[in-house]
Design a protein that fits this description.
Blueprint (H helix, E strand, L loop, with lengths): L18 H4 L3 H10 L11 H21 L7 H10 L10 H15 L3 H14 L3 H39 L1
Helix pairs in contact: 2-4, 3-5, 3-6
Length: 169
């Protein structure tokens, strides 16, 4: 398996921008392919990459719970599966991909198991039929957009207030 592991001597996140580390991390190629990025100066491990992995995990969990067998219905999962050659477990789409994505997010971002349990619980509660999936994904997309906009606005307000305080000194 091509799981990204931190080096044993370094307790911090791996530096994915260094050329020597790029060859060790197939994650970089996946993110560039998924987001349509080209060039080696792009940063991997940022907010877009995190949100891409969250979408992959959501789609894998939905596929496993609802029983989706058509990869065209879950485009991010399809790219993830083909990029990392994740095998299908028990002839059911989403199970192996979900575990693989979970390990990746835990290694790169230090995401807690409770995060994944919450997502799985929410999907089990909200997505019982195929019709529920589209509504659920749309709600998730709107929620994350609002959250990112709010975070950006708060950070801009913080920067403005800090710059005004520093200009008074």
């Amino acid at each position: 398996m091509h799981i990204l592991l931190q080096s044993q001597d370094s307790p911090t996140k791996p530096d994915l921008t260094k050329e020597s580390n790029l060859q060790k991390h197939p994650f970089r190629h996946f993110i560039q392919k998924l987001l349509g990025k080209k060039g080696s100066e792009e940063n991997t491990g940022g907010m877009q990459d995190y949100m891409t992995l969250v979408r992959v995990y959501f789609q894998a969990s939905i596929a496993a719970n609802v029983g989706i067998t058509n990869l065209a219905m879950v485009p991010d999962l399809r790219v993830f599966k083909s990029s990392f050659h994740v095998p299908t477990v028990n002839n059911k789409l989403g199970i192996g991909e979900k575990k693989y994505c979970q390990k990746m997010m835990q290694e790169i971002y230090g995401v807690d198991d409770n995060f994944f349990k919450e997502i799985d619980q929410s999907i089990r509660k909200s997505c019982r039929k195929m019709q529920d999936v589209q509504i659920y994904l749309l709600q998730f997309q709107n929620f994350t957009q609002d959250l990112m906009m709010l975070t950006g606005n708060l950070m801009n307000s913080l920067i403005d207030s800090l710059s005004s305080v520093s200009s008074r000194m």
